[in-house]
Design goal:
6% helix; 8-stranded antiparallel sheet; single chain; globular; 2 helices; mainly beta; 18 strands
């Protein structure tokens, strides 16, 4: 059974919205609003996405006058899910479909030059139904996308990915999926940061958290989710005045947030908080970031394609 709760900590104090849906004992994280001094992390992309064919086709068998049959194009524009993501103009897109054994990843948008931290396991079964593209498993590993995606002021943005909920989250050990923000030498919390992470709520119940710090004031949404073996579509949207958290198309968290963020220092990370802490230790697929607030209709469209409900042509 799933229960949803929203906890927000900010300048005006604290508010709590709960719909337990029959689930008891869901009170939010016991280890503070922003554990480990941070908020979410960021991502990497697909470097081996296939070609555009080439050659002049002579017949229905795909043969050409100057070479063997051209293989089908499996690049992002030919995958329905990737095409939907690209149509919404992401500023970072990491499909994470690299083959097993890969030692690099690429951002499809070309805006970032991600580098691997540790050795993720590529070639894992992907989240997208009917799609040959694969996912990546992260243990003591992650991706450093560099100093990009500095959404200062009240700049709207959207964080999107598919992830499995880990079964071994411990108290005080949040698992960061995406995070942007510096790491202070004294271990304190940065003034400005944002991200998505998992945090333990109760045995078998994990909070999926979308957090944003602006000028040192945190705003955090905590909807619990039961641990299972499935991928979940998780989307965090900041529209300039509200934080909205969606899981599998449902809006499960919201709160007014008009705080001005300063310049956000540090790298954008995927699957960790920083190079030595907050490892996600789970499987992640199709990471995308947008410099706009995706409307619910587009979030729904992405999810529907992801679960195999393709639109009629």
């Amino acid at each position: 059974m799933l229960g949803f709760s929203l906890v927000v900590s900010g300048a005006g104090g604290c508010s709590l919205l709960v719909d337990t849906s029959g689930l008891t004992g869901s009170e939010g994280p016991k280890d503070g609003a922003l554990p480990d001094g941070g908020d979410g992390g960021e991502m990497a992309a697909d470097a081996t996405l296939g070609g555009d064919g080439g050659g002049l086709l002579d017949g229905p068998d795909g043969s050409s006058s100057d070479g063997p049959p051209t293989p089908p194009d499996t690049g992002p524009s030919q995958r329905p899910y990737a095409a939907a993501v690209l149509s919404d103009r992401p500023v970072l897109y990491l499909p994470l479909g690299e083959p097993a054994g890969s030692t690099s990843v690429a951002d499809v948008t070309g805006n970032a030059h991600p580098k691997l931290i540790g050795r993720p396991t590529f070639g894992r079964p992907g989240a997208i139904a009917g799609d040959p593209d694969t996912a990546a498993a992260f243990d003591q590993s992650g991706i450093d996308c560099g100093s990009v995606l500095d959404f200062s002021g009240r700049q709207p943005f959207t964080l999107e990915l598919w992830a499995r909920v880990p079964s071994d989250v411990a108290v005080g050990e949040p698992r960061f999926l995406l995070r942007k923000g510096d790491v202070l030498s004294d271990g304190g919390q940065p003034l400005d940061a944002y991200g998505l992470y998992f945090s333990l709520n109760a045995p078998g119940i994990v909070d999926s958290v979308f957090s944003r710090r602006a000028g040192g004031l945190p705003t955090v949404a905590f909807p619990p989710i039961s641990v299972d073996a499935s991928f979940h579509h998780i989307v965090g949207v900041f529209n300039g005045t509200q934080l909205l958290l969606y899981r599998d198309t449902f809006q499960v968290g919201f709160y007014g947030d008009t705080d001005l963020a300063g310049s956000i220092a540090g790298s954008f990370y995927v699957a960790l908080r920083d190079p030595t802490n907050g490892f996600a230790r789970t499987e992640i697929d199709e990471v995308a970031v947008y410099d706009s607030a995706l409307p619910q209709s587009r979030i729904q469209a992405h999810h529907d394609i992801g679960v195999g409900n393709l639109p009629d042509k």
